[in-house]
Amino acid sequence: MPKVVPGYKEQARNRILNEARSVFSEKGYHSATMDDVAKALGVSKGAIYQYFRSKKELFLAALDYHAGVRGSVVQSFLQEGGLKALCTEEFFDRMREESMGSLLLNYDLLRVALSDDTLRKQLRVKHEQWVKGVAEMIQHSLGEKEVSDEVDFLSLARAVLAIRDGLYGSLIVGGDAKKARRAWSVSMTRLLGSVLD
Amino acid sequence: MPKVVPGYKEQARNRILNEARSVFSEKGYHSATMDDVAKALGVSKGAIYQYFRSKKELFLAALDYHAGVRGSVVQSFLQEGGLKALCTEEFFDRMREESMGSLLLNYDLLRVALSDDTLRKQLRVKHEQWVKGVAEMIQHSLGEKEVSDEVDFLSLARAVLAIRDGLYGSLIVGGDAKKARRAWSVSMTRLLGSVLD
Amino acid sequence: MPKVVPGYKEQARNRILNEARSVFSEKGYHSATMDDVAKALGVSKGAIYQYFRSKKELFLAALDYHAGVRGSVVQSFLQEGGLKALCTEEFFDRMREESMGSLLLNYDLLRVALSDDTLRKQLRVKHEQWVKGVAEMIQHSLGEKEVSDEVDFLSLARAVLAIRDGLYGSLIVGGDAKKARRAWSVSMTRLLGSVLD
Amino acid sequence: MPKVVPGYKEQARNRILNEARSVFSEKGYHSATMDDVAKALGVSKGAIYQYFRSKKELFLAALDYHAGVRGSVVQSFLQEGGLKALCTEEFFDRMREESMGSLLLNYDLLRVALSDDTLRKQLRVKHEQWVKGVAEMIQHSLGEKEVSDEVDFLSLARAVLAIRDGLYGSLIVGGDAKKARRAWSVSMTRLLGSVLD
DNA sequence: CATGAATGAGACTTCATTCAT
DNA sequence: TATGAATGAAGTCTCATTCAT
Known about the structure:
Tetracycline Repressor, domain 2, DNA-binding, 8 helices, homotetramer, mainly alpha
């Protein structure tokens, strides 16, 4: 047993991850400095380097850390209300809270990913997992009610995620949240409506 | 009045704009250096500064320059085939050729825009223009066939653009183009289908 | 709270201030580079930027730092000998030692001040303080001996300072120190003589 | 006989000299660019290089050119009114118009002069010429009225010039012209008063 | 002679990263 | 472990100067 609190390092790491995400999200990967992160944490720059080898590593770890958190929140929300919940404006807002910061970070991530094949593959895989998850959800909502052959669940899932990302993107430049929200429910209803009926 | 060929400066500017876009697109706004751009052009760094006051200005100008080109291509395509053309996979591909490079740049642009109110407003306005354009197109396709009150054209338009952006985004990480294409036509048909019938 | 020696930063700052003044004084504000200063200090350029935000700030701080030192030396000298001491060649020399390097810097400072309203105002105020100080000194020397209404102390003070600056200026181009010294005592005696008698 | 107007080159040169002085005076030697000068002239940068080999040469030539002009203006003024005219506030203003710009330039010149022995010597010589000129003027004013042995004309002359330069210097930072003017007449009267009586 | 686009050296400044304390 | 001063590489931008037209 070490003298220090067990799990201390883990806690410290997570604390850094949280703050780092916040800082990166606000200023952007390139504009945020290690000093910004350190100051937000109230520690010295050097301290961060004991947990992460480089800025890039910190950035990637921060994204990864929160991707897990976010996913779980969304999923739990869906499990309660099912596909119908997904079509609501409330769901859009709920997910937005979780995603907005990360969306911006994802833009930075994409840039970083472009020159890193491994990373790009990870992103692709993760995206496909989301697609499959949503597709299954849709299919599941149908229950045994109908023959599934006529519906392209995967394409629908892709579209759902695309709308989500596209609408959030429009919000970043200052788009009206009310309109985006409405666009979400309108399009979701049209897209999944016939499936639900 | 320059003794040199008239219009030379205009040409040179455009040449820079082209190359700059290419370089920024490949490396990203932050990672690309003015030297990269200069080398791609085969000129010295200083030369660029005779045409653009700063890296940011060059970046913005390059985006603007190509936004015009892109827009016109898309529009001409739509005028021929109308709303039905928009739902095709061919359209998706066609627009992709025009957009992909710019999409990445747009991510950089968003980051830049976040700390530039004027710029953000411009982006918002431009986006709204697209929305209106697409909404009108949809409404127009309906012709006098139906009462328009029941359909929220603007929301549909927003969704259409969101899907476009979202799908292109998925392609950037290496998503399968065929699947995205299919998702496009499937979702477009569902979204606009009842309008078209 | 730094673990390092307390007051270290203060010392380092002052060391930079000293060296900077020396370098600026020798090469001039514009010709001296931050690299020159860094090399004179035996540190890297970056180190300086931890203490001063810009070259201009460093320059201004260096001037300010030494202005304090200089002022105090002069004042103490005057308090002992009063107005008579001020008229001596010895005083001229004494003050010269303190001023010469700074005089050159002051020329640079004037140039900088021309495009900086705040700075210009500071200089003006500081100059007026000197004027008032000298004027009071003259008035004080008179004691209750005479009615002061007939003497324009402020104008005299202005003249005294002008002569000082003018003579030092002549020395910079290589003027003969002996002659300047003599001009000082001769003119001071004539200027303040009747006041002193 | 050349085709071009005889003396054209001379005229062009002088025109450049005039404008250059104006630009250098306003912006300072270092801050003024060759482009600034060219634009003020309404010609291209290249044109200037056909008359002057370098920026430094242009600067020096411009100063030299106007030194002559200025001197003559002042001298003519003095020849009319003699020493008494010199003591007036009017004279101070008159000379100020001629000197202010040049005073600033002289500061720049000093900096340049410091690393150029030849130049520094020229400045010293020129200054001594002024001193002698003023000294003779004072002596001349006395006429045969008195024995000159008791008065140190050269020192007085030095003081006069020093006051001029010192007061103008105070004006540069925004000092009150009225006060400087008054200081001039007050001090001149005290300095030369007994000589004049 | 004039033009002005291009050059290229070099200035200021910023950080990610290291390391002695 | 934490600190934060120092490093040094790199980036943006500026101009004096040149030269093909």
